DNA sequence: CGAGAAACGAAGGGGGTCCTGCGCTAAAGT
DNA sequence: ACTTTAGCGCAGGACCCCCTTCGTTTCTCG
């Protein structure tokens, strides 16, 4: 239940550090878990009071740990974004297009379960600068490699691709199959035409 | 200022009819105009009180004319959707793919200035059943024609295409040029591969 | 085990939204 | 011109949210 108890979370200079006292640490983790769920369901604008309630903690405790909505948001999503970034590294062995495609697929499957991630990208939230940079750092090389190999169209930027693929995550599909079909179209649009 | 004074609005059996008394009619139109602007800017969840304020009318008057948010929403967007539907008819003369493409382009340019339209489609709002049907009735034939001509890929439904293209409208692009590039990718994804 | 400090929750101020009841105003119709 | 009545705004109840203050609880460490 508690967030994969890592010794301490990444140093971004922004994220708050995990508190030392036992009760405080318990609440901190409960808040992080609750926030993850609520942000995922309702998007980046979700009610902080709702998050505190779900964590079984007073709103004041939330504010004590995360002075602003941004702090909480980044604390929650940095893990996910890091995972996305790390994954990009494991893709070097694949053929250029396959690497790009599979990373983008992962990206969508992340973003659809996490409406907040979609929001952050779609609305260019400043709250998300750190995460945005990490995603760029991870994904752009993949696109550029595919472009150099002539597999991805050369006239688009990584941002363009990200927007297109992120758009696919915005709708709430009824069947999984539909999302696959739509994503397939998007990917075809990114591919270089023969 | 008043909404293109049509004799009476379309009969959907849902939209409220324009009131008979002069003052009432004035307020009705002001509300519709305000709603159009506010929905466009803030999306389908915009504050009704804000709309009433902008119309220079009391919130009670809004409720008197439009008992629910849905009533107001449909009253506002039916016109737009009708325009989109009408346009599809004028496209018969074009080559199958060109007809589809230009309709989809129009669709995007509508949806981007009207966040509420995007919302309605992305979230499958039940509030939007009528409009949704009209859009389908207008656009599906265009897709099917392009598919029959072998110009659009055959393995997708109209819904799929709509979601993909609508996704492009979701992000708020900083430059117009970027939106063009992203839309171009989406359209390429819809085209049949040679 | 017993301070002292750290963290907690209750509560409340300020603001916003949705929606309704009610007495008054001003348009319609004779 | 005068009555009728449709339509109006005011004001307020019932929520919900953001954020802060403050007295109390509970952990930690000597």
From TrEMBL, chains A, B:
Q: Which Gene3D superfamilies match?
A: Tetracycline Repressor, domain 2
Looking at the keywords, is Transcription regulation present? yes
Q: Can the keyword DNA-binding be found in this entry's annotation?
A: yes
Keywords attached to this entry? DNA-binding, Transcription, Transcription regulation
Family annotation (SUPFAM superfamilies) = Homeodomain-like, Tetracyclin repressor-like, C-terminal domain
Q: Which domain of life is it from?
A: Bacteria
> Which protein, by its recorded name, is this?
TetR/AcrR family transcriptional regulator
Q: Which InterPro entries has this protein been placed in?
A: Homeodomain-like_sf, HTH-type_TetR-like_transc_reg, HTH_TetR, Tet_transcr_reg_TetR-rel_C_sf, TetR_SbtR-like_C
Q: Which Pfam families match?
A: TetR_C_43 (PF21597), TetR_N (PF00440)
The HTH tetR-type domain sits at 25-84
* DNA-binding region residue numbers: 47-66
